[in-house]
Each structure stands twice: as structure tokens, then as C-alpha cells.
């Protein structure tokens, strides 16, 4: 079983938090306010697919420039 490290807030973990908030928030707003809010989880899903196939993630670029550092590619400490 794979379990990710949770001892620090590295870039990949922050991206997952943002994606989760967008998906849950858009779904809840779509249910209680207006169906147009369902566009948020759809766009988040498309962004995740684009990242899976190309490695390009706009949120990761912004977070990296703000100082978040990636865990992937680091040697184990």
C-alpha cells in the first residue's frame, strides 16, 4: 500500500488540496445555488487529465514561484 508523506506541505500535496477544494466547492455550489457552478469540477478534471498526459500544471507553476518546493524527484532524506 502506498502512503504519501504528510510531514510537510510540499508542492504536489498543495495542488491536491486546491483540486479537492475546487471539485467539492463547485459541486456543492452547483447543487445548492446554480448548475453553472458544475463547470468548476469539470475544468479541474480536465486540468488533471492535461497534467497526467503532458506534465503541465498552471497551479504548480504559480505555487513554485510562490515558494512551494516539490517532493517528486527529491532523494529520500
From TrEMBL:
<protein>
    <submittedName>
        <fullName>DUF2892 domain-containing protein</fullName>
    </submittedName>
</protein>
<dbReference type="Pfam" id="PF11127">
    <property type="entry name" value="YgaP-like_TM"/>
</dbReference>
<feature type="domain" description="Inner membrane protein YgaP-like transmembrane">
    <location>
        <begin position="11"/>
        <end position="65"/>
    </location>
</feature>
<dbReference type="InterPro" id="IPR021309">
    <property type="entry name" value="YgaP-like_TM"/>
</dbReference>
<keyword id="KW-0812">Transmembrane</keyword>
<feature type="transmembrane region" description="Helical">
    <location>
        <begin position="12"/>
        <end position="32"/>
    </location>
</feature>
<keyword id="KW-0472">Membrane</keyword>
<feature type="transmembrane region" description="Helical">
    <location>
        <begin position="38"/>
        <end position="64"/>
    </location>
</feature>
<keyword id="KW-1133">Transmembrane helix</keyword>
Amino acid at each position: 500500500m502506498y502512503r504519501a508523506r504528510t510531514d510537510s506541505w510540499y508542492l504536489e500535496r498543495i495542488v491536491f488540496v486546491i483540486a479537492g477544494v475546487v471539485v467539492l466547492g463547485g459541486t456543492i455550489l452547483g447543487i445548492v445555488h446554480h448548475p453553472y457552478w458544475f463547470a468548476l469540477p469539470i475544468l479541474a478534471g480536465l486540468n488533471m487529465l492535461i497534467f497526467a498526459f503532458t506534465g503541465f500544471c498552471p497551479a504548480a507553476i504559480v505555487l513554485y514561484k510562490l515558494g512551494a518546493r516539490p517532493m517528486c524527484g527529491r532523494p529520500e532524506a
